[in-house]
Amino acid sequence: MTSDLAWLKGHAFLMCVGPGFGPQDVAPAVSGALETGLGGIVLSPSHVELAGDTEGLTVAVVVGFPTGRHHSLVKAAEARLAVQQGATEVWLSPDLAVADSNRLLAEFVAVREAVPHPVTLAVILESSARTPESVAAVAGAARLAGVDRLVTAGGWLGKGTGASVSTGLPLTVTGAETLEDVITALESGADRVGVSSTAAVDSPPH
């Protein structure tokens, strides 16, 4: 059971992009993620330089977040700067009002070119706020642009569910608050889970 729990923790990312999360919270969050054995942490762009020594912890940063209504060139620049400051993964927020495949593709390509491999590029679906057709359009454009994975939700517009999302790309399901949530997300097809706190993987299932 200990090895199983360690495996689960290694597939969990601590979400630190909520409205109440400030600069003073970055260092304690990084320390908590490291002590718990999590796989990564998700930060806002202005907080990346505050992360310090992450000791191999994957540092993901959200760009264009939370509305996605930033110019594509601004998103690309934001992503590039975050990587220069130490992020190894970028989570891109597209505009929820955009479902046109060509517009989505153009933006995804712009950001992909700004942060080429080995940086991991993910696109945030906000699946609870999109129609199935819109989710399919985002996923299709992401695959064509060379995006590495998709994320169900960023946390500002509600939780994203993973069970109904079939995208053809590796999937991170966010919104897990308990160990049961983490297990359910992984069983639904996700290979990583965004957790609201380290307690989500420290508390035994009920």
UniProtKB/TrEMBL annotation:
Drop me one GO molecular function for this one: deoxyribose-phosphate aldolase activity
Question: What keywords is this UniProt entry annotated with?
Answer: Cytoplasm, Schiff base
What the entry lists under InterPro entries is as follows: Aldolase_TIM, DeoC, DeoC/FbaB/LacD_aldolase
Write down the superkingdom of origin. Answer: Bacteria
Q: Cellular component terms, GO, for this chain's entry?
A: cytoplasm
Q: Name one GO biological process term.
A: carbohydrate catabolic process
Q: What is this protein called?
A: 2-deoxyribose-5-phosphate aldolase
